[in-house]
Amino acid sequence: xxxxxxxxxxxxxxxxxxxxxxxxxxxxxxxxxxxxxxxxxxxxxxxxxxxxxxxxxxxxxxxxxxxxxxxxxxxxxxxxxxxxxxxxxxxxxxxxxxxxxxxxxxxxxxxxxxxxxxxxxxxxxxxxxxxxxxxxxxxxxxxxxxxxxxxxxxxxxxxxxxxxxxxxxxxxxxxxxxxxxxxxxxxxxxxxxxxxxxxxxxxxxxxxxxxxxxxxxxxxxxxxxxxxxxxxxxxxxxxxxxxxx
Length: 245
What we know:
This protein is mostly beta strands. The protein is about 10% helix and about 65% strand. The protein is built from 2 helices and 10 strands.
């Protein structure tokens, strides 16, 4: 939280000294997942909503910080099935499927450098890019596991109908996403925010992409390259609808 407050204090001087400021409210739905250099996760719906201001340096260039409430998350599944054979027959069977469903709520501060192309009749197109800083304020993680393990008589023919003899057990639990006794993900996140908006008078409609640069989990590899390649980071693709005051 201290890191996020520090970024707010850095933005305040820009706001105070601004001569031409416009305020806006914007938000919309998003689809979210995690990425690493090697692996990705399943998509999950979320969204963001907040307020922002725009300090116009000139007709084309402006600075645009915003304060958003953002909901992100992802789903991941780890499934394995192992069958052991002895003289052509099944001797043992093991099945293990673990599913994690993460929900992450953030207080988020994107700070964009924005470029505007003007058209006729109060229409314009904007391109914005900049860093975002976020702090996790809540969320739940749902965990489920389906497991089975069985030994067979290797001298009985189990090749066809072995699955009918398997008893599966299921375990379910719900944890705090950022809590120490829960999923224990990093609360602080940062990355790159990119946006494109079409503006008509006071209204705006556009899309955005956020790519996280920090790994979510707290497991640490001895090799920094492995840390980057093997651990998931937030990714969001969203739709923005806004109104400028």
